[in-house]
């Protein structure tokens, strides 16, 4: 083969299909084991009321540190779990874990849990949410479920049915990553979302690009008119915070206020931020 190319062609190493398939199979095997041994844990990232700067709640984010490969990004292992048919078990364990943990927090704080398409369309999903709420005696009002727009790839009737049932339980439904894909306003018209999360890509560009800024303003205004809260993701500096707050954004989430942290750190984080003036950051003190 190399000879046919003249022998001196620069060859890039391309792992064979077989090698890729093997490593994928190994990773799935390790993932299955990690789920069974409960080695996949949740970190919690604070979400702040953009008008009062008070702590509002936390988003639960899954973390997996592979014994050899190190931390695997959640985007990656969640997709792998879906493809391998493991997401149902993993999702159930994580939801139960989130409710169990959040039950120990002050009553004004909620927890927001990401739900994958696979989980939502599992026939017993609603029943399982009900079961978890009951077993952990966690108030449904303090649970948010974050879904992304790919849930609408299924029939509208099926999607509407599940969301309605969850809504009837008293759980809040949040539309995550709004603006990232083909976000249609139709979703907002037909489904009972209580909150929209504005994708970090718009937030990131809003200070340098007037078109992104216009879209951010429009989404916040639209949400306001619909009576739906809006959370901005990826808020990393005070300048972003002030712009978003002035535009009337409901909540903000980002490294400015806190990184995702293990549950052991959450208690002291809550204590610290209820004792002092809420979320005065270093840059506020300097300006
Ligand atoms: P997401 O639900 O949109 O979560 C927000 C992501 O933004 C998280 O990434 C978070 O760590 C990151 N982030 C937060 N603040 C900032 C910031 O100021 N700057 C930047 N650059 N990033 C920030 P993470 O934890 O890597 O999660 C990625 C995605 O993986 C999530 O996006 C979600 O779609 C998925 N995911 C994570 N945990 C779960 C889970 O338990 N179940 C499901 N189904 N999906 C999950
Ligand atoms: Mg999310
Ligand atoms: Mg998001
Ligand atoms: Mg995302």
UniProtKB/TrEMBL annotation:
<feature type="domain" description="EAL">
    <location>
        <begin position="24"/>
        <end position="274"/>
    </location>
</feature>
<protein>
    <submittedName>
        <fullName>EAL domain-containing protein</fullName>
    </submittedName>
</protein>
């Amino acid at each position: 083969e190399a000879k046919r190319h003249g022998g001196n062609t620069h060859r890039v190493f391309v792992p064979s299909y077989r090698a890729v398939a093997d490593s994928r199979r190994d990773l799935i095997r390790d993932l299955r084991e990690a789920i069974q041994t409960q080695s996949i844990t949740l970190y919690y990232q604070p979400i702040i009321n953009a008008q009062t700067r008070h702590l509002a709640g936390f988003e639960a984010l899954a973390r997996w540190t592979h014994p050899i490969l190190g931390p695997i990004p959640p985007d990656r292992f969640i997709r792998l779990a879906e493809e391998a048919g493991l997401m149902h078990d993993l999702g159930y364990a994580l939801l139960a874990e989130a409710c169990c943990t959040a039950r120990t927090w002050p009553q004004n704080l909620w927890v927001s849990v990401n739900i994958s398409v696979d989980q939502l369309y599992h026939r017993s999903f609603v029943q399982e949410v009900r079961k978890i709420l009951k077993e952990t005696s966690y108030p449904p009002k303090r649970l948010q479920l974050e879904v992304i727009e790919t849930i609408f790839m299924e029939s509208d009737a099926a999607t509407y049915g599940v969301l309605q049932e969850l809504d009837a339980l008293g759980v809040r439904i949040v539309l995550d990553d709004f603006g990232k894909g083909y976000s249609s306003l139709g979703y907002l018209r037909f489904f009972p979302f209580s909150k929209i999360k504005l994708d970090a890509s718009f937030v990131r560009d809003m200070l340098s690009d007037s078109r992104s800024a216009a879209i951010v303003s429009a989404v916040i205004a639209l949400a306001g008119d619909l009576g739906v809260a809006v959370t901005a993701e990826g808020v990393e500096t005070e300048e972003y915070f002030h712009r978003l707050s002035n535009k009337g954004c409901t909540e903000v989430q980002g490294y400015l206020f806190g990184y995702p942290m293990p549950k052991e750190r959450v208690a002291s984080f809550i204590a610290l931020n209820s004792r002092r003036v809420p979320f005065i950051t270093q840059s506020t003190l300097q300006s």
